[in-house]
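Working notes for the structural subgroup meeting. M.R. asked for a predicted model of this chain before we commit to crystallization trials. I am recording the input and output together here so anyone reviewing the notebook later can reproduce the run.

Input as submitted:
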Amino acid sequence: MVRHDDSLFFKRESKRSYLDKPVDPDALQRIYEKIRWSPSNSNNQPWRFVFVRKDDAHHQAFIEALPLGNQWAGEAPMLIAVCGRRDDDYVREDNPVEYYQFDCGIATMSLLLAAVEEGLMAHPMAGYDAPKVKGALEIPDDFEVLCVVSLGYKGPIESLDEHTRKKDESPRTRKPREKVICEGLWKF
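Returned structure, recorded in token form:
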């Protein structure tokens, strides 16, 4: 049995407090390279990651695209927009499934695990106004903003407001294995 403390998968957290410390440039280059080498259908690599530093001119407009419940992310040293577009997809004629969103998700997981390897925390968020993010970062119309991620060094929980702190203090849980995994036939 895998011990939870021995694996990057179990060390990964989506907490909300960040230190006011820039991300090490060498660590960032290693993260970029791991994203770049993520697997994708037919090696199409449909993802585009826009990294925005806290001191970047576009940072404030990016923050304004987040709802009140995600304003804590503005304290992270970096925000990231994960983007993709249908034109970069590989679609089989015999099975017209769109893979680009899945491939972008794989690349996002590469980011999350690479962050843990570097002693960082990356928190993916679904709460954002996609048109505002696109406008803030000048993302072309044919691209979709699929996810927003905050990145930085984990900070003290005391720096969060009470409501957000309660979210971070709640225990991590998962559904039981038998609710999400089976072997052979569908058994859910």
